[in-house]
Amino acid sequence: MFRTLPLAALILAAPIAVLAAGSDMTTPPVSTETTRTCTDGMVWSDRKGACIAPQSGALDDDVLYGAVREFAYAGQYGDAAAALDAMSDQHDDRVLTYRGFIARKSGDVAGGMQWYRAALSANPDNLLVRSYMGQGLVESGDPAGARDQLAEIRLRGGAGSWAELALARAIRTGHGFSY
């Protein structure tokens, strides 16, 4: 019985741990070797212990996605776009979300909104895209649209998340986050 109880606990806890580790990509990324050491859009590979080109094929999509987020938050939009281009599934809602983020932060708000709508079409529960879209709506003078996205974030379980707090702050102040 003691052997099965720990195994059962692991089996039951595994989905929660995976969900916790993989789903809350709504907090700003922590700077890693990718932006501290690497240059010219290179991405740090823990496995190789070196900076390598995103297009090398040596990095999986999760590593590339982490680099995309890190580059985007550092304002290195060209490097973020290059890492996005190297991802295997260009229709993944994560890719579409960051294409929208890059477009919006580069001044193409309408283009950003198109990418955000595509991301929501792929995954209506993507809280991060809803927050970014809402922030873009605030910046474009559409607070009602932003409040709709805030309501969707809350409805979809995002109360208390960075996505909710960032959008609520943007609505309150009239300004989205500039990372």
Automatic annotation (TrEMBL):
<keyword id="KW-0732">Signal</keyword>
<dbReference type="InterPro" id="IPR011990">
    <property type="entry name" value="TPR-like_helical_dom_sf"/>
</dbReference>
<feature type="signal peptide">
    <location>
        <begin position="1"/>
        <end position="20"/>
    </location>
</feature>
<protein>
    <recommendedName>
        <fullName>Tetratricopeptide repeat protein</fullName>
    </recommendedName>
</protein>
